[in-house]
Amino acid sequence: SQQGEEDPQALSIQEGENATMNCSYKTSINNLQWYRQNSGRGLVHLILIRSNEREKHSGRLRVTLDTSKKSSSLLITASRAADTASYFCATVPNTGGFKTIFGAGTRLFVKA
Amino acid sequence: SQTIHQWPATLVQPVGSPLSLECTVEGTSNPNLYWYRQAAGRGLQLLFYSVGIGQISSEVPQNLSASRPQDRQFILSSKKLLLSDSGFYLCAWSVRLAGDTQYFGPGTRLTVL
């Protein structure tokens, strides 16, 4: 199975609500990143959290990392219709390699 | 600021035809370059990466190849396309190789019929 797996696969919420997406991984990591992809477009980097960090904020985004549980969460507060997109976590296993491994993503739909 | 371009945006090709997708990066020197393929509703599969001119590493054996003729140019090719080559192809670059933030191009939607 994949190194990074997002949960849920799909999420539908009303505008103004908070959206929480989770990512689990299997091996120790150097860092974990979250990316966003609008339909039919390239990925856009949102935030990077290092293995020695527990929480990071950027605007309406809050990312947490629990290395003991090998999991991360992305919280989008006060969601907007424009937040509708797929969100991917990406990990770099701490095995001496460099390859960034992307999960299958969470598809978020924010209803206006 | 840095910009990454990909073309064409969409492509429909018959089985057995050749392929050439191009990616160029502006505003940076000696970037690490990547080609990914994304199947519908799925994550990204790393196909090739390059740390410098003429240096190509392949991650997945297949009928695709990559070349880097110039510092900021990365080309994905095939001599004969297969149906299974259909997908969304993304080029990306990063400053460092190991776990660095990657900056993606807009992608090319390839349909092989």
Can you put this structure into words, describing what you see?
The complex is a heterodimer of chains A (112) and B (113). Chain A has strands at residues 4-7, 10-14, 19-25, 29-37, 43-50, 55-58, 61-66, 71-76, 85-93, 101-102, 106-111. By secondary structure, chain A is mostly beta strands. In chain A, strands 2, 4, 5, 9, 10 and 11 form a 6-stranded mixed β-sheet that branches. In chain A, strands 1-3-8-7-6 form a 5-stranded antiparallel β-sheet, with no helix packed on it. The termini of chain A are far apart. The model of chain A has no long low-confidence stretch (mean pLDDT 92). In chain B, 36% of the residues are buried. By secondary structure, chain B is mainly beta. In chain B, the strands form 2 sheets. In chain B, strands 2, 4, 5, 6, 9, 10 and 11 form a 7-stranded mixed β-sheet that branches. A 4-stranded antiparallel β-sheet of chain B has the order 1-3-8-7, with no helix packed on it. In chain B, 0% of the residues lie in helices and 58% in strands.
Summary, kept brief:
The complex is a heterodimer of chains A (112) and B (113). Chain A is an all-beta fold.
Key features of this structure:
heterodimer, A: 112 residues, mainly beta, six-stranded mixed sheet, five-stranded antiparallel sheet, globular, B: 113 residues, four-stranded antiparallel sheet, 0% helix
Alpha plus pi helix count of chain A:
0
Mean pLDDT of chain A: 92
If helices are DSSP runs of H or I spanning 4 or more residues, what is the number of helices of chain B?
A: 0
Give the proportion of residues in helices of chain A.
Answer: under 10%
Oligomer: heterodimer
- Structural class of chain B, by secondary structure, is mainly beta
Structural class of chain A: mainly beta
Number of strands of chain B: 11
Q: How helical, in percent, are the residues of chain B?
A: under 10%
Unreliable sequence segments of chain B: none
Order of helices and strands of chain A: EEEEEEEEEEE
The main sheet of chain A comes to: 6 strands, mixed
What would you report as the Rg of chain A, rounded to the nearest angstrom? 13 Å
Shape of chain B: globular
End-to-end span of chain A in angstroms? 35 Å
Greatest interface and its residue counts? A-B, 22 and 21 residues
Order of secondary-structure elements of chain B: EEEEEEEEEEE
